[in-house]
Write a structure and sequence with these properties.
With 258 residues, this protein is of the alpha+beta class. The chain has four helices and 14 strands. The protein is 24% helix and 37% strand. Strand 6 (100-109) and strand 7 (115-129) form a beta hairpin. Helix 1 (5-18) packs antiparallel against helix 2. The longest helix has 22 residues, at 131-152. The termini are far apart.
Amino acid sequence: MCLNRVSFRSRLYELARDAVVPAKFGRRLSIAASRVLSPLPLASTVSGPVGRQSGAMKLVKASQDITIPDDIKLEVKSRKIRVTGPRGTLTRDFKHLAVDMYKTHDQVENDEGEMVEGPLKLRVDCHFGKRKRLAAIRTCTSHVQNMIKGVTKGFEYKMRLVYAHFPINANITDEGSCIEVRNFLGEKRVRIVNMLPGVKIVRSTNVKDELVISGSDIELVSKSAALINMSCHVKKKDIRKFLDGVYVSEKTTIVKDE
């Protein structure tokens, strides 16, 4: 006989009510019946910062907002983001993430007690996500925040030429889009490193043996600095003794905070 969910529960109640068992097993039976007959927990909706979730329960909806500044133009279409600001335009595709992205306004109360539209926000939602899919929400918002910061303040990495005996010579060519590193550990080989698109490198005017790499895209700026550092790795020697190289000394923005 096939029973639906309601009839099955009612039948269990009848069996538990009419069952005749010894007293020592009565408590165990009542606990077991309460576990079987208790309703199933429902997943809840969570908004705001997404933390680490215990267990394997899925959340119906998890979301996080980013406030868009007034001087920034942000466009969203099919999980493609285009951010335009004083320093230019940056684009990024988030189609590999299982999230929803859209612009929205929150209703806020003004001084007169009336409900008006608040500042423009970018909302990122994830439906029925577990731990890894929920982590994608913060990943997405962090990338967008870096894009907004890049088109307003820009990013700047400072690198130092470190040497003990053989001085490292750095020659910047092609209007700041290429650098030639010579005399590394006394070698005659010339190391040529091209900057990624939109990244410029100059020599510092205040500090000796310092290079300044700047751009609007934090990933392109950091990758360009990594390429310079990787070109000057010490090979076949004890790196605890031979510390020569080009290293990142400071990470900041082009437009300094007052």
